[in-house]
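Workshop exercise sheet. Pairs work together: one partner reads the sequence aloud, the other fills in the structure field after running the prediction. Swap roles for the next sheet.
Pair: D.N. / O.F.
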Amino acid sequence: MSGQSQRLTVVPTVTMLGAMKARLVGATRGHALLKKKSDALTVQFRQILKKIVLAKESMGDVMKASSFALTEAKYVAGENIKHTVLENVQSATLKVRSRQENIAGVKLPKFDYFSEGETKNDLTGLARGGQQVQLCRAAYVKAIEVLVELASLQTSFLTLDEAIKTTNRRVNALENVVKPRLENTISYIKGELDELEREDFFRLKKIQGYKKRAIERQLAAAKEFAVEQFAEKVALQKGISVNAAHNLLNDAMQMDEDIVV
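Structure field:
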């Protein structure tokens, strides 16, 4: 029953056998390609995981340094430096752009940070706090760079995880469902074709037997007719009855058989 459930419903013909073999070859090639794709994605997945671990470890130190730098800036320049900093900012100098990277057919999102324009150093007039504010800005720029890198790695990590799960499901489906079903179908078609071949051979033997017996019956009838004609001819020549002529012919044939033996 399990073999029948795994077998496709097909007509057992030579054409269908060739089609099933072609499908099995395609499924085997597809399984091999998907297996290679899964291995490549797994390698990339592990590399990204290592980078995420390192980025998260460094993020703690960077965020701690940036928070400490902000505290120092507020201590040196006072609590009311927010308005002065906002007045000196015209546009964002650190921006983020997205792109895609193709890994074994899977498009991974990547985020890159870039600087646009130069930052005006107009905070030096803040008594002794201008330099400390610049150091605070540099610390937060470093934190943003780490966060952008971590966001890129985390997004790629999730995308790769979903792609690996999908690829592995396809690999398992081909290996455990599609290929066994095609192989069972091919075995079923071969068995049916062999059975049909045996039936044809048996049918030919029966037909040959019928023809042989019909020929034998025809020869026997022809022989009997020839003997009857010859017996009538002998009866006319010797002036005896047909039965007596038959008896003479039978005796002659028996003597011939004894001589041959």
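Discussion prompt: The longest strand covers residues 94-103. What would you look at next?
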